[in-house]
């Protein structure tokens, strides 16, 4: 039973959920919802934005495409349309997700920002408190909690000396849409991951002059080898070869195709690309044209930043560059520590402490989806596991209730006869 002596319980409208509460209506949350629908289990999805997949709809640039072939990015029980290209565009992927939600009749509770979620041991239930855009507070009470806010819920903005005094426009990559308004300007792109590379390429295509800050080492791989996705090739080799050997083969093939990229200021890590992804979560850059612009010096690769001043950036080498704008392609992080009051399953960085493949289930009905560092394929496999696991307990509860009801009915019948 709920502990009614807790005054905080009465501080907001309470809703009992006869199934799990899923926090986040991105691809991961939708995947769990679809799998639960297939099992006949009710659920509630809470989403702080006003749409599904808000990261894709509101915080991505226009030219974005899936980096991996569509067969590795589809959600459970619903493939991409056959007419879609191998690498769907941003709009096509959003259309796919909206079709997915319609197919499985998934209707998230939009504009519901989770303030906190905690497990109440006095009643063995999760309490999830939200506040709507209109200020209405609601507390959801449930047996299971699925964290589906993902790896990229919140932007990372580094604290760089002098950035506030720079004077020019400073935006994060999540607010960058197109290089059109930067035409003719000198733009410093901070961060050399996939976003930094693609933003720099897009700026080139709009006649801007980008300088790309490459502070640390980075793996740059061709998106395709011999007409096949490098990811698909890696997955095929992993069936037969150890990870370290697959990394060696990928780097040898990359060297033959891309050549020595270190002479352009792009240093390779000592750890192989797959091992680095698995151990540190650092995704290799899949080149779609930026490297050619770097070779032709249309994208200027520069080392780390020392500090900013008015209209100028000073690099660690002491060299100063005059720039008009700054795009911070400095990545994202999990927001779980800000709202989930739990420290046994999730670490301080907002990721499950247990390594893959054991990072999907915690104690007391707590689950995580989309934290495998293995993209949409990892989220899909987690979603299937979670729905199956919840289904076992849910169906056992139903059977127990039926048995209790049957026993109660027989007892009542006996009393009536007597």
Describe this structure in words.
The protein has helices spanning 27-39, 54-58, 90-103, 194-205, 230-238, 243-258, 273-280, 290-295, 336-339, 375-417; strands at 13-16, 20-23, 44-46, 112-120, 125-132, 137-142, 144-147, 154-155, 169-172, 186-190, 209-213, 220-222, 224-225, 228-229, 285-287, 300-302, 305-309, 312-315, 320-322, 325-328, 332-333, 366-368. The chain folds into two domains: 13-153 and 334-399, FAD/NAD(P)-binding domain (3-Layer(bba) Sandwich); 154-221 and 260-332, FAD/NAD(P)-binding domain (3-Layer(bba) Sandwich), CATH 3.50.50.60. The protein is globular, with a radius of gyration of 25 Å. The strands form seven sheets. It has a five-stranded parallel sheet with strand order 9-20-10-11-16, covered by helices on one side. Mean pLDDT is 90; it is low at 1-11 and 404-418. The chain is an alpha/beta fold and 418 residues long. Helix 1 (27-39) runs parallel beside helix 10 (375-417) and helix 5 runs antiparallel to helix 6 (243-258). Its EC number is 1.-.-.-. Pathway: Plant hormone metabolism; auxin biosynthesis.
What is the topology?
Layout: E1 13-16, E2 20-23, H1 27-39, E3 44-46, H2 54-58, H3 90-103, E4 112-120, E5 125-132, E6 137-142, E7 144-147, E8 154-155, E9 169-172, E10 186-190, H4 194-205, E11 209-213, E12 220-222, E13 224-225, E14 228-229, H5 230-238, H6 243-258, H7 273-280, E15 285-287, H8 290-295, E16 300-302, E17 305-309, E18 312-315, E19 320-322, E20 325-328, E21 332-333, H9 336-339, E22 366-368, H10 375-417
Parallel strand pairs: 1-6, 2-3, 2-7, 7-22, 9-20, 10-11, 10-20, 11-16, 12-15
Antiparallel strand pairs: 4-5, 5-6, 8-21, 13-14, 17-18, 18-19
């Amino acid at each position: 039973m709920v502990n009614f002596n807790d005054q905080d319980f009465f501080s907001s409208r309470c809703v009992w959920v006869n199934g799990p509460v899923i926090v986040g209506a991105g691809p991961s949350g939708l995947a769990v919802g679809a799998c639960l629908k297939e099992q006949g289990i009710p659920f509630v999805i809470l989403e702080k934005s006003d749409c599904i997949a808000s990261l894709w709809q509101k915080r991505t640039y226009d030219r974005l495409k899936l980096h991996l072939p569509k067969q590795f990015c589809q959600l459970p029980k619903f493939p991409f349309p056959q007419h879609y290209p191998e690498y769907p565009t941003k709009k096509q992927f959003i259309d796919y997700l909206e079709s997915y939600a319609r197919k499985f009749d998934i209707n998230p509770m939009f504009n519901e920002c989770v303030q906190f979620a905690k497990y109440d041991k006095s009643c063995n239930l999760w309490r999830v408190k939200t506040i709507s855009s209109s200020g209405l507070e609601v507390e959801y009470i449930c047996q299971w909690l699925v964290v589906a806010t993902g790896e990229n819920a919140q932007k990372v903005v580094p604290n760089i000396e002098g950035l506030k005094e720079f004077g020019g426009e400073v935006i994060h990559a999540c607010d960058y849409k197109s290089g059109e308004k930067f035409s003719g300007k000198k733009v410093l792109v901070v961060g050399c991951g996939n976003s930094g590379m693609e933003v720099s390429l897009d700026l080139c295509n709009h006649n801007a002059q980008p300088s790309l800050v490459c502070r640390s080492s980075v793996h740059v791989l061709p998106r395709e080898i011999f007409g096949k996705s490098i990811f698909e090739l890696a997955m095929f080799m992993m069936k037969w070869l150890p990870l370290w050997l697959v990394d060696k083969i990928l780097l040898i093939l990359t060297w033959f195709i891309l050549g020595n990229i270190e002479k352009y200021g792009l240093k390779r890590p000592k750890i192989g690309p797959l091992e680095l992804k698995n151990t540190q979560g650092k995704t290799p850059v899949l080149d779609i044209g930026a490297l050619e612009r770097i070779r032709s010096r249309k994208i200027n690769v520069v080392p780390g930043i020392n500090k900013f001043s008015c209209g100028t950036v000073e690099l660690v080498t002491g060299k100063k560059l005059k720039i008009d704008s700054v795009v911070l392609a400095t990545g994202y992080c999990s927001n779980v520590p800000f709202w989930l009051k739990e420290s046994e399953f999730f670490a301080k960085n907002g990721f499950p402490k247990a390594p893959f493949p054991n990072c999907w289930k915690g104690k007391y009905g707590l689950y995580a989806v989309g934290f495998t560092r293995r993209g949409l394929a990892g989220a899909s496999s987690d979603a299937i596991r979670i729905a199956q696991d919840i289904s076992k307990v849910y169906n056992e509860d139903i059977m127990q209730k039926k048995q209790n009801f049957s026993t109660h009915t027989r007892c009542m019948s006996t009393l009536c006869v007597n």
